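To the team - pyridoxal-5'-phosphate complex, inputs and output below.
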Amino acid sequence: MNQDIYLDANATSPVLPSAIAAAANAMAGCYGNPSSTHATGLRAKVLLDGVRERARRVLGAGSGSVIFTSGATEGIQTAVLSVLCAVRERQAAGDTVGDLLLYGQTEHKAVPEALAHWNRLIGTGLTLRALPVDGEGRHRLDVLRQLAPRAAMICTMAANNETGAVSDLEAIDAALRVTASKALWMVDSVQALGKLPLALADTRIDYAPFSGHKLYAPKGIGMLYVREGAPYTALMAGGGQEGGQRSGTENMAGIAALGAVLAELEEGDTFAPHARLHAFRERLVASLREALPGIVFNTPLHASLPTTINFSVPGLSGRDLLDVFEAAGVRVSAGSACSAAKAAPSYVLEAMQLNEWRCASAVRMSFGPAVDEAFIDSACERIARCGQAIRTGGLAPASLGQGSRHDLIRFGLDGANTWLALDAASGSCVVIDPVAPLAERISSIIRSRDFRVRGIIGTSAGEPGASVRAALASLLASQVDFAESGDAFGWPAASDSISLDDGTRADAIAFGRQVLARVPASSGAATGQAYLLGEGTSGRLWADDVRYAFTGAAPSDMLHEAVQHMTALLNRDTILCPTSDAAGVMCTTAGANDAGDCRALELAPEGLEDFLHAHPDALVIDVREPWEHAAGAPVLGGRAAISVPLSRLAAELPQWMRGGQRPLVFCCRLGTRSLRAAQCLARAGYRNAWHLDGGLALAEAAMGTGRDAA
Ligand code: PLP
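Output:
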């Protein structure tokens, strides 16, 4: 079994065994309410007081107080509420309090959101102002010095969760003193605990929120440091727990677990010292450099937490990188909010004014101070495997798809299909219906293979297709092998012609042994064109040899109607490749019918083992991209999956359709892509196409099988 390599500690961490034991002990043996006066309650109170004392020592709280909260978000609300209530009182008394709520531009969203929320609710009417950072993510002290006299509150995190950039708190402190700022100062210290020295009472920091789950305690427990004399307003009123500062019966299991972590920090040897963490990071950085040539680090390595690495790789999207790491069992996260299709650029990297591509494709790798040498060894080995997968799986622009047997690739985006027909033997290709967002990617694939481009054509005339085709042609200028004709579909000026099966003649582009012929898209007034692709023989393209028909933007439920006028030119197994993919059809066969049932057969992870046992001829097919397959090839019930990426399904469909309907079990990471593959086959009339519900993660857990270490 592929062990998870968890490298997402800045999101959350596993729970230390000693913390689990302490929580269990608190629940089993020390379950009293610390407010009760009987012995059971007193025992809980002793535990509570003990953890608080330890926390005070670890944080260097001096005469300040430490309040237990549910986490940092609560601590942030409490600090902001406290400041704004004090501001309102001072406003009412006619004091000058400043008009700005100043926060670092790279703060966790909890900070500006809390400022806006409470400012609105309390009606303090202050202006929120983001304090810019420099290219390394450090606060602009010149701007701070200008604005500090006007600020009622200043929020500057100790270390950034995306990049690990460590703030220069001493310089901020000095800027506040030198400008005689009266602002109250909150430092979100979530990412600093256990990684940076803390002596809060020696600073002029007024509030410092912490979160247990970022350092091996469970979720739902946190702390808030409040400097002695700093204004305080309770967020929660009630039974008067925490000295009336935070009502509600204490989360004793969480507090006990946090206590165990603090004990490790204070006197244990579980956490690696700073120098060792730096050495660990250097090893990871070296592995990344080796595996991902051209990598750029968005983390300022000399001024950041030794446990965080944020990077981008030219030519590779964040999504692609995450998929490869995920396939290799390496858990990392996008440096930015990332949805399946599009990555929203990271506001943190944008604030550092990094290039657009770096902001959009960043990946964050972070580990906790409890990791050891063996863990780093495994992580480096896995990173190397990812690099290898990217090279052999065809993701790296320099090595894409060498020797691939596939001759048709589909690129799907927002309900549109772009098709790339390749002829490996002659090293030539044709692009059909390119869309703007994919132009870069398609051109980099063609360039890296050094293919000659015999045509860039559309199934419909005019814009926006014409501009995209022109843009792609100019990106591929040195490889374009055709003279533009000015034709509305991009059809080349000097093309051949060929006879079709019905005796008519059609314009044709020959590339290798293949030929692409153009025919009107419909029998009526021709507004579009369709293309037939197959091997021509003696100047003729027989219907039996037409493997693909590019049908244009016919609605998916009318695909067959759209090709009715040319059925004499196709065979039953010809794959219909539409441009519009609104209904997720991808492709189907000419012999199927539009009203066909496209429901996929579903396999539950628990049922997979029995299914494979009962069907020794079943083929397990991994529809993830080749680089994901190469990073971790699934072996389910002892059966190795073959790789047929969703983008290459059309190329495989003909041979499956001709086969004997053996059971096909499609799988992917989460079950989304495999569902589409099985639906596509069902629609094409294949009655034995299954999809593994819930994806590989659930199946492997259910079957206790793993992935190839190769
Ligand atoms: N501040 C920073 C820097 C964080 O990384 C996080 C967690 O993502 C938070 C605040 C919020 O912490 P919690 O999950 O404890 O509410």
